[in-house]
Amino acid sequence: MFRLLSDTFSLFFGALSTFSLVDAIDILLLTYVFYLLLKLIRETRAGQLIKGIIFLVAGYYISRDYKSQTFSNPFHLKATNYLLEKVLNVGVIAMLILFQPELRRALEKAGRSKFGIRLFGLGQNTNEVKMMWDSAIDAICDSCVELSASCTGALIVVERQVRLGEVIETGTILNAEPSKEIFGNIFYPKTPLHDGAVIMRDGIILAASCFLPKPAKDALINKKLGSRHRAAIGMSENSDAVVIVVSEETGQISVALNGELTRDYTRDKLKSILEDTLFNDKKEILIGEKKLFSSFSERRKKK
Within a 13 Å sphere around the CA of 66, how many CA atoms are in the beta-carbon half? Predict the structure, then answer.
């Protein structure tokens, strides 16, 4: 045992003697990458998968045969070690398959960051965006106020940098200029297009009756929220879109952005957040509304 500790300390100090500034930068970079990965999978089903993978790796090393002058493993389980070795041999491919949603979300976030947009020359300047969205924002706000007054449910997705082609394909293409009358006809109960979301691109109503993805953190969402609010959170998790919800029960106007839902919007507040997200390209904007997305940090505070 003493010899094992002595060898370990010798290796540690030997590595420390060759440590340089480049090595420090390398370690800090890897640490930051691992932090981003942990932040990405936290509070999702991927977190449970990570625990399972750690359990398999630990089992592999425990069951492995160690024969050396310093250490001998008394728990050498040949059959278990053989099976775990075969499983871990295809672990990289399995991880790509299992973590496909999380990896896709991470790449999408990197692509829609300011660095990614500048690197590939994507995006439009503010003046172009204002020309397309000025009248559309007023139409959205006026429509939401009227739908709220009549307690008519509505779900409007305002597309930004991330294209929503896959979601648009699930609905009906309209290519219509937005107005109170158009939104009223779409979301009027029992009409063919009222069940689903409206997708807006470049200031026009591109499609209606579109089905949105489920939220990744569905178990943490307030149980009082209905299917529209859950779909809005799911869409905002999978893209940078601004998703507006009008509650069918209460007429309350809510906005989902970056996986978080805020409520109690008036016309002025709704117009303000749409202008901020579309014209100023702000990633996270909260105007004091109550946050309904329950995170682990909020739970710890309650405890």
Answer: 11
List of E strands, 57-100: none
- CB-based contact 160:175 (threshold 8 Å): no
Nearest to 42 by CA among 297, 276, 271, 302: 297
117 belongs to a structural domain: no
SS3 60: helix
107-116, 162-171, 264-273 — most confident range? 264-273
Q: Give the contacts of 191 (CB within 8 A, at least 6 positions apart).
A: 185
Residue 256: is it exposed, middle or buried by C-beta count within 10 angstroms (0-12/13-18/19+)?
Answer: buried
pLDDT in tens, 19-60: 778 878 888 988 888 887 776 666 555 666 677 777 878 887
Claim to verify: residue 173 and residue 199 sit in the same structural domain = yes
CA distances from 111 to 124, 161, 166, 226 (A): 15, 9, 17, 31
Q: What DSSP designation does 212 have?
A: P
CB 212 within 8 A of CB 231: yes
Q: Residue 2 forms beta bridges with which residues?
A: none
Strand partners, 255: 244, 262
pLDDT in tens, 192-224: 888 889 999 989 999 999 999 888 766 566 677
- Distance (Å) of CA 195 to CA 65, 185, 189, 238: 60, 12, 8, 21
Q: With a cut of 60, say whether residue 303 has pLDDT above it.
A: no
Among 46, 80, 111, the domain-final residue is 111
144, 278: one domain: yes
Model pTM score: 0.60
Residues 6+ apart with CB under 8 A from 213: 167, 231, 234, 235, 237, 238
